[in-house]
Amino acid sequence: MSDFKDKAVIVTGGAKGIGRGICMAFAEAGAQVMCADVDESAGAELSAACKALAGTIRFRQTDVSQGCECEALVEATVSAWDGVDILCNNVGIQPASSYLPAHELPEALWDRIIDVNLKSFFLMTKACIPEMKKHGGGVIVNTASVQGLQSMKGVPAYAASKGGILSLTRQLALEYAEDNIRVLAVNPGTIDTPLVAESLEIIEGGEAELRAKLATAHPIGRIGQPEDIAHAVLFLASGKASFMTGEYVCVDGGLMAKGAWT
Ligand code: BMA
Questions:
Q1: How far apart are CA 50 and CA 227, in angstroms?
Q2: Strands 8-12, 32-37: parallel, antiparallel or unpaired by DSSP?
Q3: Please, what is the Cα angle at 251 between 245 and 253, to 5 degrees?
Q4: Which of 66, 56, 60, 62 has its CA nearest to residue 27?
Q5: 94 lines ligand 1 (CB under 6 A)
Q6: Over 80: is that where the pLDDT of 202 sits?
Q7: H-helix or E-strand containing 11?
Q8: Geometric angle at alpha carbon 162, from 157 and 168, rounded to 5°
């Protein structure tokens, strides 16, 4: 994957979980990575962890649900590396307190989940597209979820945000195909991340037992690791996927292949 040498990559929600895996994989492949996250200590830890890698990871504390912060993030990336080649809209939240049916979900929680999980994808895209056009193209890879395709009880805002990402991915792909900007999505299944650990707290039965149950729910017999998603993201962002756009890839251990009757 050496074709990322000196490419400028932005990863939102990059300090932990899947985002951290994506940052590390791009830096291993020689890229210059701008990691955006609200978690400053996790960001500092990540920048230190990349010292021995071919590329670099720079951390910038950013709340990407705010348009002005997205613009400042893109400006900082452009002034450091003269452009943005790849945008990974990855940030996502699923607070344990949000596991409620729609009629019980506080409006403020709906807004926060949609702002972080979906609106930020629009805001970051808006800020990056002029830079990508200026340099003759780019790639946007969006982290959606299998929950954008199939649902469960108690996740009205999260499910809507993930379905929205898949629809936005198709729309943007059409909009910018002629500008040589490809737009794709990945749908992770259950991945070993702080988001999943936090969201599991609400379910009774003990975390270890629950993790074992989640592992067997995936036909491959385990939950995923952040690197599993990162490998797919790097492929989609690479020239090897140059004829792919407006599409999603499930990286879910076979979860979406399973019928409801199994
Ligand atoms: C992800 C998260 C996880 C969940 C997985 C599979 O997006 O919501 O908490 O385990 O989907 O449903």
A1: 15
A2: parallel
A3: 155
A4: 56
A5: yes
A6: no
A7: strand 8-12
A8: 120
φ, ψ for residue 26 (rounded to 5)? -65, -40
Residues in the chain: 262
The two tokens of residue 72 are 């400042």
Q: pTM, whole model, 2 decimals?
A: 0.96
158 annotated active-site: yes
234-262, pLDDT tens digit by residue?
Answer: 999 999 999 999 999 999 999 999 998 98
Instruction: Determine the Cα–Cα distance for residues 117 and 123; give it in Å rounded to an integer.
Output: 11
Residue 146: band (very low, low, confident or very high) from pLDDT cuts 50, 70, 90: very high
Q: Give the pair of three-digit tokens for residue 199.
A: 């969201």
- How far does the centroid of ligand 1 lie from the alpha carbon of residue 196, in Å? 7
Sign of the CA dihedral running 64, 67, 69, 70? positive
Amino acid at 125: T
pLDDT digits (tens, 9 = 90+) for 84-103: 999 999 999 999 999 999 99
Rounded CA separation 252/257 (Å): 9
90 lines ligand 1 (CB under 6 A): no
pLDDT of 200 reads 75
DSSP string, 198-261: HHHTTSSS-HHHHHHHHHHHSTTSS-B-HHHHHHHHHHHHSGGGTT--S-EEEESTTGGGS-TT
For residues 190 and 90, give the distance between their C-alpha atoms in angstroms, rounded to a whole number. 15
Burial of 47 (0-12, 13-18, 19+ CB in 10 A): middle
Phi, psi of 44 (to 5 degrees): -65, -40
Residue 245, ligand 1, Cβ within 6 A: no
CA of 8 to the centre of ligand 1 (A): 29
Q: How far apart are CA 16 and CA 84, in angstroms?
A: 22
Give the DSSP letter of residue 178: G
